[in-house]
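This part of the workshop introduces the protein records we will be handling. An example says more than a description, so a record of this kind follows:
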Amino acid sequence: MVGVVVTASHNPPNYNGFKLCDPRGMCANQESIEACFYDSAGCRAGAMGDEEFLPGADILYEHLARICPAPREPLRLVLDCACGPSSTHLPAFLRRQGHDVLEVNCVSDVEQCDRVVEPMPSTLGKTIEFLRASKADAGICLDGDNDRVVFLD
């Protein structure tokens, strides 16, 4: 049995990829994989396994909806996902929570992002201007792989 971990990054697309893992979640031996890739005659496959797709983002946001109460008062939010993976689910989640969401860079294609993906004062100028112009209550700005966040008020 093998698992596949898909990696996504705010780096250019050629740095994204996947890792093969064993049933314990440990990464498979890279040298063995490369040897089989370049010389498939010397590799033997075991029994065919089953495939299972887990919609991880759907599972995560369903869980968040269960544990996060609706806000006392909905907010008008500017959401800048830096065209990262949260672009596909976070805007809808915040709307289901009752917020008015104004999307900036919420398409999952980093090449369409109109800013450097690191959320810093020097890179968030357009988002800050949009926040002010739209009279939003707050802003949520993520980095390109959505593991860092900056909140604006």
User: Anything to note?
Assistant: The helical segments are 30-38, 56-67, 90-96, 125-133.
